[in-house]
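Exam revision sheet. Question 4 asks you to relate a sequence to its structure. Input first:
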Amino acid sequence: MQPTPPTGGEGIDHYECRHCGLTVTARVHGCPLCGRSIVHYSL
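Answer key, structure tokens:
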């Protein structure tokens, strides 16, 4: 079996904390490090 190629246009979700700069790829509602709000990016 061959691995399925990634679909174009989906990208990877990134969440970055503007307060401490932590970047996570999991879907979170707040920074696990400092508890501040998370900014969502889709690359």
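Marking note for examiners. The beta strands are 13-17, 23-24, 38-42.
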